[in-house]
Design goal:
Layout lengths: L1 E2 L6 E3 L2 E3 L2 E2 L11 H21 L8 E15 H4 L3 H6 L24 H16 L4 E6 L5 E6 L2 E2 H21 L2 E4 L13 E9 L17
Antiparallel strand pairs: 1-4, 2-3, 5-7, 5-8, 5-9, 5-10, 6-7
Amino acid sequence: MIWDGVTPPFVKDSTLFLPSCFYAFTGEALDEKIPLLRATDALNKQVLRVLRFLGDDKTQYVYTSVGCEQEFFLLNRDLFMKRPDLVLTGRTLLGTSPVKGQQMEDHYFATVTYRVHEFFDDLKRRCWSMGVPIENAHHEVAPGQFEVSPIFQRSSVALDTNMLLLTLITETARDHNMAALFHEKPYAGVNGSGKHNNWSIDTSEGVNLFKPGKTPDEHV
């Protein structure tokens, strides 16, 4: 095990957490972070080759950045506890379709209720206090579905903070007598939840290589 020095440590519930990488004595990866770091290193080498070929002699390195938009469903905790399928699997395994579902997708444009607004305010405070840079929160298309969007971070950092975000959403929902569902398809007939994996390649000079120019000649 080795501490990933790129990802900042954090304190939660009086415990210091050090984001780490796990590997065997033979060099084999024992987690999913090491393959990401190795892939990022390989991409850095190849992108630098392309930039040098294009005449860029200033860039020293490149890295990938990600903004993992997180979708989830919120429901009343008292009702959640009455459904063993939701409690055990995070999704419904039986039941009938609701009278009103996602037909008009009007939930996406609706005003956030006071109760959910309080939940979001509390969640944002907790996230920012632990270094999780949540930028905005809003409805999603399906009834009872919501999404929070972070500020872009280096990929390895963004993945760690996303895992922490899942915990903070779960705990904040519980404190507001709600339950959060992250299953990719918790209900039949409506949108599922996931992560919008928006990513880009940035240079040491602060240039986003995926940002198009303002003229056709700059769109390369």
